[in-house]
């Protein structure tokens, strides 16, 4: 750990000395915005703090683990327009900054994306420091007349596995900065496991829900709860409150044949969602498989069992006449060894695969609607 | 950092309690092998310790930074045959276990690959603990008669950014374990930067040199030195000692137009290599580009300048009649934003891209030889 601390210190000193050189900054605190500005939330202004993912009232209905994880800012982002040369963010975190198989940049870091005048995404970079008090300085030194004059739309993705306590964005006085209101498109809502929450992306922008949001240019709500995405009725109840464009149920890696009745959980979840929102497409996602299926017979048989039960649920729902229900099978996900960090969590390559598969299916569904 | 320590403790306790259950283990220490067993070294038995990458005599000829980095075990691996149900490794490290943008699994972790009876790679997984004293327990619970009877070939990839002090591999008494000698194929030798050393792969197997080794099933020597791959004559001199199958010079991300004469360094490096080994193909690799080229004009112009100088060097060498010299251009590398962790280091997706591009070029070269 020494090296991290040393590097933090160096970056901190660099930051300090840099901060002294620059002109006065105007800082903006999203918590003080007059209108909701945190994208990726289904219940804006009902959260206990603006960096949580679930409404405060959900606490008593959920298991403690789910509630705790819902405080982590996976899938949340802040949209704004600016023409600044440097976009600075200072923020405080409440949790651990890294995990053994996921770097600080993914667990606790930020990721900034902007749009070119042709609508393509670009990703500024600069200096950063991730610790209990963290900061990024994104450099946007572009010699593009339209940017200098009009700025562009930015999206700042928040940490995947940490709780944001406080955050401010700063630009130099001479540039403009304008927070953007939430988009009004009905969101895609993804309920899932650690994979959905973002483990083990190397940075927030590489979590599959965030990649999907950029690919489709469509809002995505991340309801991924590490180790705790279990198709629970209480969470499904909350989902029915969301006037969604698509529901994704991607919980199988957190289900256990010995404990959970996957068939029943899936059937009841879909019936509940369809009961309230019959027209909203629902995607049932199979277990992606373990990378060590070949050398771990338990994992192999577990995957087979879970996916068989999900298949039965899908068939039963179709037989009962439910429409717009889709099954994303293990083969569709197409995971290979190079897409995993350990035996279950995607690396960035796997995250891109996940997002690409979802993008294709969702575009197909939308084209047919 | 608290979470890492807590997790380490839990894994440690799990490890201890697990260790008590299992039967007696027989441990093998590669340092005590009667024949060289560390693959990925060009100078076996000339290293100060068997986990270094350069011969001891090189210390006085190299800058201190290069020498220090050469002690890190990037690209090194241990090959063995076994039919064990569990393959345990305990090891001690000398350096920091993680970096802000690269997890402990990549910096300091291990990666085990085996071969199916059809010659395909598989990757066992299990439990692990990475700290100053680290351990992995790879589970190989396969119900394959040929494995139980004959075992198979394994390759254990060592940490990318740490120095191994001590390592032992253990299997239970009832299984066999046999270290494999070094392969006699002439190696592919890659001299480069942090990207070549393996930053920021999520695990050792995803460093591009290690992916390339598996793809081609051919030995690759990793001479990547983080921040210090500068096409230096002293290092090129060492390379000429290696009877290589291909030389790769991939140093541009560590060159600086203000300090380094890329044209001259590249021309002299190739002349030196060709002077000693005229028939060995040499690949000159361009700068892959920064992911923030668009928002950082300095980075953009730096890449253009470096690549232009390398292109001139390539043209000059061709004009002088040198053959089997190849230029891998920025466009060939084909990097896009989703392949980067920060603005220069590949994530696993980028590492796979890098390896795939090299694989194709090297197969093309070999097909023409």
What does this structure look like?
Two copies of one chain form a homodimer. Chain A has 369 residues and is α+β, with helices and mostly antiparallel strands. The first copy, chain A, folds into two domains: 2-42 and 73-179, Jelly Rolls; 188-368, SGNH hydrolase (Rossmann fold, 3-Layer(aba) Sandwich), CATH 3.40.50.1110. The first copy, chain A, has eleven helices and 16 strands. In chain A, helix 8 packs parallel to helix 9 (297-319). The model of chain A is unreliable at 1-21 (pLDDT under 50). The interface between A and B is large, with 58 and 59 residues. Chains A, B: It comes from Arenibacter nanhaiticus.
Blueprint of the fold:
The structure is a homodimer of 369-residue chains.
Chain A (H helix, E strand, L loop, with lengths): L1 H20 L3 E4 L9 E2 L24 H7 L6 E6 L3 E8 L10 H4 L3 E5 L5 E2 L2 E5 L3 E7 L5 H6 L1 E6 L6 E9 L4 E3 L8 E5 L1 H4 L10 H9 L3 E5 L8 H8 L5 E5 L11 H15 L5 E4 L11 H23 L5 E4 L1 H4 L14 H21 L1
Parallel strand pairs in A: 12-13, 12-14, 14-15, 15-16
Antiparallel strand pairs in A: 1-10, 2-3, 3-9, 3-11, 4-8, 4-10, 5-6, 5-9, 7-8
Helix pairs in contact in A: 6-11, 7-8, 8-9
Protein name (chains A, B): N-terminus of Esterase_SGNH_hydro-type
GO molecular function, one term (chains A, B): hydrolase activity, acting on ester bonds
Keywords (chains A, B): Signal
Largest sheet of chain A: 6 strands, antiparallel
Task: Let me know the CATH homologous superfamily of the largest domain in chain A.
Answer: SGNH hydrolase
Oligomer: homodimer
Mean pLDDT of chain A: 94
**Estimated share of beta-strand residues of chain A:** 15-25%
> Number of DSSP helices of chain A?
11
Shape of chain A: globular
């Amino acid at each position: 750990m020494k090296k991290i601390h040393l590097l933090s210190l160096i970056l901190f000193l660099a930051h300090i000395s840099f901060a002294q050189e620059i002109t006065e900054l105007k800082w903006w605190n999203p918590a003080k915005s007059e209108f909701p500005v945190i994208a990726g939330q289904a219940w804006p202004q009902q959260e206990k703090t603006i960096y949580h993912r679930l409404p405060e009232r959900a606490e008593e209905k959920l298991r403690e683990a789910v509630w705790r994880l819902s405080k982590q800012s996976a899938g949340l982002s802040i949209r704004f327009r600016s023409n600044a040369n440097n976009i600075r963010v200072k923020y405080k975190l409440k949790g651990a900054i890294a995990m053994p198989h996921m770097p600080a940049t993914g667990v606790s870091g930020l990721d900034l994306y902007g749009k070119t005048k042709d609508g393509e995404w670009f990703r500024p970079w600069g200096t950063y420091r991730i610790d209990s008090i963290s900061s990024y300085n994104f450099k946007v030194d572009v010699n593009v007349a339209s940017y200098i004059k009009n700025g562009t739309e930015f999206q700042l993705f928040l940490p995947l596995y940490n709780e944001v306590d406080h955050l401010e964005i700063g630009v130099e006085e001479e540039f403009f900065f304008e927070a953007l209101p939430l988009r009004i498109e009905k969101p895609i809502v993804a309920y899932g496991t650690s994979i959905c929450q973002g483990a083990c992306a190397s940075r927030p922008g590489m979590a599959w829900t965030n990649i999907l949001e950029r690919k489709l240019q469509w809002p995505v709500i991340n309801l991924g709860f590490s180790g705790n995405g279990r198709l629970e009725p209480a969470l499904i109840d909350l989902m029915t409150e969301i006037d969604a464009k698509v529901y994704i149920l991607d919980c199988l890696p957190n289900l256990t044949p010995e404990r959970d009745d996957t068939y029943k959980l899936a059937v009841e979840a879909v019936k509940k969602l369809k009961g309230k929102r019959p027209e909203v497409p629902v995607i049932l996602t199979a277990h992606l498989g373990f990378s060590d299926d070949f050398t771990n017979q338990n994992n192999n048989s577990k995957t087979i069992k879970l996916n068989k039960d999900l298949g039965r649920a899908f068939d039963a729902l179709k037989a009962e006449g439910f429409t717009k229900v889709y099954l994303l099978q293990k083969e569709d996900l197409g995971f290979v060894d190079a897409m995993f960090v350990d035996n279950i969590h995607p690396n960035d390559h796997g995250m891109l695969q996940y997002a690409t598969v979802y993008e294709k299916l969702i575009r197909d569904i939308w084209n047919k609607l």
